[in-house]
Amino acid sequence: MTELDIAEVARRAGVPASTLRFYEEKGLIASTGRRGLRRQYDPGVVERLALIALGRTAGFSLDEIAGMFAPDGQPRLDRRMLADKADELDRRIRELGVLRDSLRHAAACPAPSHMECSTFRRLLKAALSGAVGRRGDRGPGHRDRR
Q1: What residues are paired with 35 via a beta bridge?
Q2: pLDDT tens digit string along 109-120?
Q3: Which terminal CB of the chain, N or C, has fewer other CB atoms within 10 Å?
Q4: How far apart are alpha carbons 107 and 5 in whole angstroms?
């Protein structure tokens, strides 16, 4: 198969050419040369870019992603690191669920003012302490008793 120029790789990967140049500077991808002023890439770079995009979406840093490739360029995924990231995502999903439910409660709370709502005040206190979304927080299903 023929090589792809930077514009075609950018189109297929859905990233700007500047991202490709940045990834090349970071050692995440490598061009095979140039045709005129345009960088050329092996078609396999598109799959590598898909792996990079997946890693970024999962929350891995570019340095962590770089470590997921063997010197020959083949993926070398650390299963423990993947499991740890999945656990981190589970925690974040729980935190976001509590935050979502708290916002829904605040939006529908029958209290005359949010500051009169005990659930909302607990949310503010938790936000101040950095504990918003931690397990054990009283959820928004709690009904205010006046």
Answers
A1: 38
A2: 898 888 888 888
A3: N
A4: 51
Which residue(s) pair with 4 in the sheet? 41
What tens digit of pLDDT does each residue of 82-131 get?
A: 999 999 999 999 989 988 888 898 889 898 888 888 888 888 888 888 77
Burial class (CB in 10 A: 0-12, 13-18, 19+), 3: middle
Three-state DSSP at 49 gives helix
Q: Which CATH number fits domain 4-66: 2.30.30.280, 3.40.50.300, 1.10.3210.10, 1.10.1660.10?
A: 1.10.1660.10
Amino acid at 141: G
The CA-based angle 49-65-87, given to 5 degrees, is 115
- Provide the whole-model pTM: 0.73
